[in-house]
Amino acid sequence: MSKDEIKYEINKVLDQFSDKALTELLTYLKELDANQLSENTFSEPLNKILLEDHVLLSRLAY
């Protein structure tokens, strides 16, 4: 999947989030950026969440 395709898919999901959820997500992403975590530090927990909690994430998106 290309970067543009990934961004498009992320935006489709984000469009379903509430304003509060988007604000919290933005805060979290800014913290990640500020801390300049290594890719492995970030991607491993994220991958675990995406793989194990995809049903929950789907419910949260709606």
**Helicity range:** over 70%
What distance separates the N and C termini?
24 Å
Helical stretch tally? 4
Spell out the helices and strands N to C: HHHH
Total count of strands: 0
Low-confidence residue ranges: none
Largest sheet: none
Strand content: under 5%
| Alpha carbon gyration radius | 13 Å
Shape field: globular
Structural class computed from helices and strand pairing: mainly alpha
pLDDT averaged over residues: 78
Structure description:
This protein starts with a helix and ends with a helix. With 62 residues, it is mostly helical. The chain has 4 helices and no strands. It has helices at 3-14, 19-35, 39-52, 54-61. The radius of gyration is 13 Å and the shape is globular.
Summarize the structure.
By secondary structure, the protein is an all-alpha fold.
